[in-house]
Amino acid sequence: MTWYDRVIPPGGTGKVTVKIDSTSIRGEFRKKALVWSNDPERLSVALYLQGEVRPHISLDPGNYIPLSGVKGKTDPGYVEIINNHSDPVEILGIDNDLPHRVRWRLEEIKPGFVYRLEVRDISTQTGDYTAHLTIRTSNPQKPQLPLIVKGDIRERLGR
Amino acid sequence: MISSKFKTSMIFLVSTLLLACMHQRLPANEGKGPIIHVSRISHTFNPVYEGEELSHSFTIANEGTADLELKKVTHS
Hints:
The complex is a heterodimer of chains A (about 160) and B (about 80). Helix content of chain A is about 0%, strand content about 60%.
């Protein structure tokens, strides 16, 4: 979003204010704004903004865990929950919408800052599924972290 | 007596100087009309956490003799 003074008198100054929504940005960014005016020698002037937006809590390697394999023998998936703040964060709980397909286990690596979440398939039947885990945290800016688990479970060979 | 070679050199030198003067950019509009001036065209924010507001105001000066109209601001 941008606000700007429409008319600047001779010898005067005005402002062009640029506001950036950081909720949809992760990592380093660079933005450009072009100011168009009635200066016949310089119809537009480029303004540059750059910076870095850090997530409150990161999920490494991401918020997606694939579980693929033979029923009862599927390797578990792992994700690290990393608190990027200097104050510790608590994991208050993890909600699971497919408890008959997926089971999770949380391990504290560095209490308050790094946790390891293990997600394991416990399906008693074959087929595909999508489970949604919601990690609830004590960080008011990031009270929930969604995690998607995609399962692809096959029957054992020879049956 | 001026030799023709010297004469040719002088003509060339004077022509070059004239051309150079013609190509030299005059002050915009010779100070007439609006003249936009931005002393700082870039800004680097300190790192922020997601959701925090990022806002910066650039100062635009009008160094001309007529109103400077800012028509629009586009983003990329």
